[in-house]
Amino acid sequence: MAWIAGERIILRAWERDDVRSRWEADQSADSEAQRLRDWHEPPRSLARREQDFDAEQAEPDPTAISLIIGAEGRSVGDINLFQIDTRDARALIGLSIWSRDDWDKGYGTDAMRAMMRWGFEQMHLNRIELEVAVDNPRAIHVYEKKLGFVREGIRREQHFDNGAFHDALIMGILAREFVAGGCGPR
Description:
Layout: E1 3-5, E2 10-13, H1 16-26, H2 31-38, H3 46-58, E3 64-71, E4 74-85, E5 90-97, H4 107-121, E6 127-133, H5 137-146, E7 150-161, E8 164-174, H6 175-180
Helix pairs in contact: 1-3
């Protein structure tokens, strides 16, 4: 797969240079970006991330697809379909826009829509779900109002951050809902 086009973004395979770009973005002192990022994974050195990249290239995970979000000629984030279950035709989706400077430009919404369209049309998924921190109203608004995800439940005290446990909202969308919401085939 060379790329998947959105309206303003392209989704493409990771390259080694993207590992450094992501790592540099993660060095930000922006407290909100750090909070949203850190409950997913602990800090890792650039050398460790490059080792992980090399290992993934050598032996890809068949249940995951991780792509770079490109906009304005540069990498601005990454998006992933993971825990792909071909028998039940479902997967989880995750997104990261690396720099606050790239927030509120529609890149995340466009990337989600493009990846969801590809997942439903090309992979023949029936269901895509996600998990989002309950205290991330901006993301919840986009998932619900712009992309058509439905709130399905709460995972209580799902992750530990900044000395406390926090709940996570589970949201999902079915292929027929995606098409009915006007996000389906172009």
